[in-house]
Inverse folding.
């Protein structure tokens, strides 16, 4: 019975991984029309599905009390694929589409490498239970969905600008600054004030700016994490 219980969250984690693999394939068809949407839009959806499965596997593990080292390792491997490699491949293909500086267009591969470092650091730091040290890797994926959506809605900002953003996000993932976790332990308003504020602001950003508002949501996440004085973790 314990093995069956553990297999449920692990199966959900595998759905996260498969969604990430699908996102990588779709990233290489970013500007191909695939049914009603373009490949990059399907890529957004696949990464979004991976994020949902990532939330559900943890929730199911807590509900069933089905924690295991295999589950922890599998979760990190899946997160690397879905939130490190997949957005990196998406940004590579967007840059190749717009830029003639071909060699520099592979700079986003650093996102996958630093995402791996971030996850290794997380797995070996017992203090990262109720909060994070550095930007969590799912937030990296959300940010790049927002950036790519902004590019498609407005304009390509230039390869140097994107390389600067890539460098900042890589540094953020392996940084030692404290960021609050988005996991709710209860629904108390005071204890979760920043979480509610971030979710409400993210919804408002998306309503006003479309998916490009997700990038602004991650920037707000940084600001709320820096402002720790009045609110508990």
């Amino acid at each position: 019975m314990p093995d069956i219980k553990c297999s449920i969250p692990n199966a959900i984690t595998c759905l996260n991984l498969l969604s990430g693999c699908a996102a990588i394939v779709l990233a290489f068809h970013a500007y191909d029309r695939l049914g009603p949407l373009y490949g990059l839009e399907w890529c957004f959806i696949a990464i979004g599905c991976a994020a949902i499965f990532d939330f559900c596997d943890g929730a199911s593990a807590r509900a069933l009390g089905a924690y295991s080292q295999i589950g922890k390792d599998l979760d990190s491997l899946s997160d690397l694929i879905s939130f490190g490699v997949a957005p990196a491949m998406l940004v590579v293909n967007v840059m190749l589409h717009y830029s003639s500086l071909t060699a520099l267009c592979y700079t986003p591969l650093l996102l996958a490498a630093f995402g791996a470092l971030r996850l290794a650091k997380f797995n070996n730091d017992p203090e990262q239970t109720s909060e994070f040290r550095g930007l969590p890797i799912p937030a990296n994926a959300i940010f790049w969905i927002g950036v790519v959506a902004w590019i498609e809605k407005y304009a390509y900002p230039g390869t140097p600008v994107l390389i600067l953003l890539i460098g900042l996000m890589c540094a953020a993932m392996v940084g030692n600054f404290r960021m609050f976790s988005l996991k709710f332990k209860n629904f108390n308003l005071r204890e979760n004030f920043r979480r509610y504020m971030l979710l409400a602001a993210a919804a408002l950003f998306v309503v006003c700016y479309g998916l490009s508002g997700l990038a602004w949501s991650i920037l707000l996440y940084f600001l709320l994490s820096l402002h720790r004085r009045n609110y508990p973790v």
Notes: Residues 2-226 form a domain with the Four Helix Bundle (Hemerythrin (Met), subunit A) fold (CATH 1.20.120). The longest strand covers residues 131-133. The mean pLDDT is 89. Helices lie at 2-27, 39-64, 69-98, 109-123, 137-153, 159-173, 193-209, 213-226.
